[in-house]
């Protein structure tokens, strides 16, 4: 997959995505809007592939689903400080354009005070050995748990652009569902929910990657999932 190489009130969110490959949490972003004083500030880590980085098909900069999701949550009065680590062609097993797998990206994105860690993907893992996929997904989720033991985990499986995904992508989906269940994570299945089925208007000319409209659509799907997780504070 192609790569892209982020006293009445208090402030919170930026329209720009925060992509950190250094492992250091970025400074709080430029204020986007004001929210009520006393609203909790939630740190959210995101790990993903080119569906998160954006590509030439769409999703660069402020068009990325991550940026759009933060904007939506900001408008809803949620204070989110995000940290995104994503890499084109990366998966739990398959190394991306810069040699990373999701476990490496997890080490870069996740911090001890994170309220939520979001994993999205990856269709790049199609064709890998199921036992290796299971082991590396387990290790990746374990890293997130060890770094941020009080965080919630939201695992979004690999998407597909039609109603007939190959069997090995379904294996990836099923393995991730099982591993997510084992660690108490919430699992979301874009394939069974038909996120992109019969929606060619959301996919670029390459037939694989979302265009800007596709990123807006993903933000519409994912922002409520993030909000639901953050609303379940203990």
Automatic annotation (TrEMBL):
Q: SGNH hydrolase-type esterase domain: from which residue to which, for each copy?
A: 46-216
Q: Which Gene3D superfamilies match?
A: SGNH hydrolase (3.40.50.1110)
Q: Which domain of life is it from?
A: Bacteria
CDD domains (UniProt xref): SGNH_hydrolase
Supply the SUPFAM superfamilies for this chain.
Answer: SGNH hydrolase
Q: What is this protein called?
A: SGNH hydrolase-type esterase domain-containing protein
Organism name: Mycobacterium cookii
């Amino acid at each position: 997959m192609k790569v892209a190489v982020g006293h009445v009130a208090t402030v919170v969110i930026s329209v720009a995505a925060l992509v950190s490959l250094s492992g250091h949490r970025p400074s709080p972003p430029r204020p986007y809007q004001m929210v009520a004083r006393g609203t909790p500030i939630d740190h959210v880590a995101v790990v993903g592939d080119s569906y998160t980085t954006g590509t030439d098909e769409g999703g660069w900069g402020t068009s990325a689903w991550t940026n759009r999701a933060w904007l939506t949550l900001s408008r809803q009065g949620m204070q989110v400080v995000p940290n995104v680590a994503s890499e084109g062609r990366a998966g739990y097993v398959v190394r991306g354009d810069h040699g990373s797998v999701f476990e490496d990206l997890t080490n870069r994105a996740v911090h001890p005070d994170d309220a939520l860690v979001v994993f999205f993907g990856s269709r790049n893992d199609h064709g890998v050995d199921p036992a290796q996929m299971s082991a590396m997904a387990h290790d990746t989720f374990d890293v997130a748990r060890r770094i941020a033991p009080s965080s919630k985990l939201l695992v979004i499986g690999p998407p597909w652009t039609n109603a007939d995904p190959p069997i090995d992508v379904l294996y990836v989906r099923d393995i991730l569902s099982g591993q997510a269940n084992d660690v108490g994570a919430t699992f979301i299945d874009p394939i069974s929910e038909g996120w992109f089925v019969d929606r060619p208007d959301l996919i670029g000319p390459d037939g694989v990657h979302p265009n800007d409209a596709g990123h807006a659509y993903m933000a519409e799907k994912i922002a409520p999932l993030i909000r639901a997780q953050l609303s379940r504070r203990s």
